[in-house]
Structure formats: structure tokens, C-alpha cells
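request received
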Amino acid sequence: MELKKILEDKSKESWEIYLPNLSIDCVVFGFHDATLKVLVLKMKDSLVWSLPGGYVLKEESINDAASRILKVRTGADDIYLQQFRIFGNLNRSEDFFKDYPDTLWHKQRFVSIGFYALVDFSKVIPKVDELSTNCEWKSIEELPEFMMDHRFIFDKALATLRKQLVHKPIGYNLLQEKFTMPELQKLYEIILGKKLNRGNFYRKMLRYDILNKLDETRKGGAHKAPDLYSFSIEKYRKALKNGLNENW
Amino acid sequence: MELKKILEDKSKESWEIYLPNLSIDCVVFGFHDATLKVLVLKMKDSLVWSLPGGYVLKEESINDAASRILKVRTGADDIYLQQFRIFGNLNRSEDFFKDYPDTLWHKQRFVSIGFYALVDFSKVIPKVDELSTNCEWKSIEELPEFMMDHRFIFDKALATLRKQLVHKPIGYNLLQEKFTMPELQKLYEIILGKKLNRGNFYRKMLRYDILNKLDETRKGGAHKAPDLYSFSIEKYRKALKNGLNENW
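response:
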């Protein structure tokens, strides 16, 4: 079915079940092949891409809404979601639907709540929903053109991740259970947007005392097999309470 | 006029001019007499206190709405406002208005956007609006009982301030133009919720190179008159871009 027909079919029910003027957009990050990726959709009959988004049911908390939306639109379930900013300028989305009737649900003004999600890449199998033709991981270094202000929302999510790297369990959620120090360093480098000194990084990470060195190595590379680590969850949570930065 | 009458009078117009289901609550911080204070209102016919709040006009950005609300409800103008969190649980406020008719604007479900504001205490003259009997500064150590989830909103604002102390111009907005090192240290101690070592604090602050030592001292105390400082705005902004913490 073409997009126009689907939207018009959904419009009437949407006015009945959702809170008007309020939407949710999700920025889902995953880490794979030494690259930070984001989950994006391509809407039917559209040349541009979008973040997975949706609306809040009249009898639903915004956190429950974000989880439900992500599951329906991408198949991603049971993941770490965090609200990070609200996008409340005028004319964020109204123009996008200018060729539709004014009664269309999607054409009203929406104030959108941005959530970011950090997922173990290997555990999410993207699923195409009824509004989309594609649901894919894209490297944050090669992002496609986005609809509306979705690029701005993505940029703010990445900036938030950068600031929160010292407060939130970002490494824990993005990496697989077992990882190497070069992988952890690469993740920090991508999020912080700069190269880090290997020696300093190792020293600081070990000083936090949040990693378990495992009795295993990563096999298969051309170089000496690097040691594998896992997070010591309890110590990690405790350290994050104080912030993973130098104390005052 | 009693509160019930005022609310019922306002209800009809509110349905016409505001976005439904969306509100704004502001946590306004000021620093005075070595105490961090917050601006609170007492509604007419009410025993509990509230944060200054209001609604978003249909043709208004959320940032403009927050500024307008703060001005109307407290008289505070032209101040640093920052959204920090959205409060979107069910039954945040509905019960509070349970004795009113269901058509009352204020009785609907509201998802509320929290803003915090940092003001120069000496420049705000609290003004009582038509809904309130009081508009006062209260020390954060002696807060009164709040209505609805306003205490929770306050707690989240303070927690945000604590985390953002390394990224945002918090000192600059809260202190008067000229201040002493003990005043700056006291502000950091209150926000961080712990005593800091005087020598370490001075050393770190001076190392950031964001302060101008003035050729003046604070007169009037029993002790040796302490030196006055001001922020070097340009250096301060530059330092904040990297975060006022140790670099990786």
C-alpha cells in the first residue's frame, strides 16, 4: 500500500488514542567493526531517511511509549533508552506533510522528545515496519540525508553521548560482553571525536578498576592476539555514580 | 478572587490558545549569603508550594514559552534558561484537581518540560502573580512541602546542575560580577554536595585560567579582606567547550 493511503487510514484512530502534539524520536546507537552506527528507516515513497519515531498513548508513560515505538518500528526489544532533549521549535514537521489535508494526524505541530538507545549490535535484527521500505544500520561517518530536523536530533544525541561518557554506562551497553582494550579505546575515540593516547587510555581505564581481565584472547588477527576484558558490573555502577572523571 | 473561580475563568481560553497536554515547570536557582536558593510560589487556597509553571502557546517555541512563563509568574526577565528533562509519567497532576469538573483545562494529563534557570540573585525582584499569594526565595536546605511531583522535579534539576558543573557556565550566571574565591568554592560545594579542599580548589580554578584577579578586595569582614575576581568570559566559554574536567 502506498504511504499516503496508510497515513490517511491511520489518522482517525491516531486522534483517538494518542496525546496530540507530542511525538518521540529515537537515536539507536550500535558498535560494530570498529564503527559507531545508528539505526535508520526509509519511509515508503520517500527519498530521505528518518529516525524511528512515534506517539504517546493517552494512558502510557513516555518511557513506556519509547520502548513500544522502538519495538514496533525496528524490532529492537528490552534495550537501554534515555531521554536526552525535547525539540520544540515551530514548523519542525508541518511542512513535510503540506500536500496532505489539514485533518491528517501527522500534519499537526509536534513537540518531539528525543531518546537515545545503546544496544549490543549483535542482538538487534532490524525489522521493516509497514511505513518503511528499509530499516538499516548506517555508520555515523556516512549518514544519509534525513527528513525534517532528524539530522539535528541525531547531532544532539551524539553530543549528549559525548558529555555523558563520564556518567553513564555507555561502554557496557554498546560493547559485547567480552571485548579488547583496542575496541574499548576505539569506542571512546569515536564518541569523543578524537584520537587518544594508547598508554594514557589503558592506564586510566585500569585505574578505575572496573574491568576484569579474562583468561582468553581474541583469536584470528594478524597481530599478537589481544587480551579480552569484561566489565565488572558492580564496580562499574559504583564508579559511574561518582563520574568517570578526575575527582575535585 | 478565589483560586477555583480564577482557574474556571481561565479554562476556556486556555483550551483555545495553548497546546494541550504539555506544560513547563521552571526551577530557578539563585545564590545569596553563601546559600543556594530556589524561587517558589504558593498558590491561593493552597498549603503547599509550587515551581513557577505554565503552558506553551500554539504558535510559540518551547524556549520562548519558558521565558514568557517565568516573566509572567515571577517577574524574572532575560535569564539563562536550560531544558533539562521531561516528566511524562501518568497521574502527575490529575489527582490534584480531582474536585474540579473534567472539562477544566488544568485537570487534563500534562507531560511537563523541566527548565532550570540560573540567575544573579540581586537582579530578580520576585513578583506575586494572580494565581499566587507568595513568590519567594527558599534555601535548598529548607525547602517547603511541594505540590504534585514538584519536589522530584527540583531534585532532578539539582542533580543536573551537579553533572553540568563541568560543561555549563554555572558559576558565571549565579555569581555577581565580582566575587571572592571562598564564594566560588562555596557555590561548588553546595552544588556538588560536599566539602572541597581549599588548596586544591584554588589550584584547579587558577589552572583553568578563566578568572581575572581584580585590583580590589571585599571590605567589611572580620578577617583579612579577600581578593575579588571576575570571569574572563572569552576564556571561560572556550574552556567550557572542552569541559572543565581533566582531559582524556
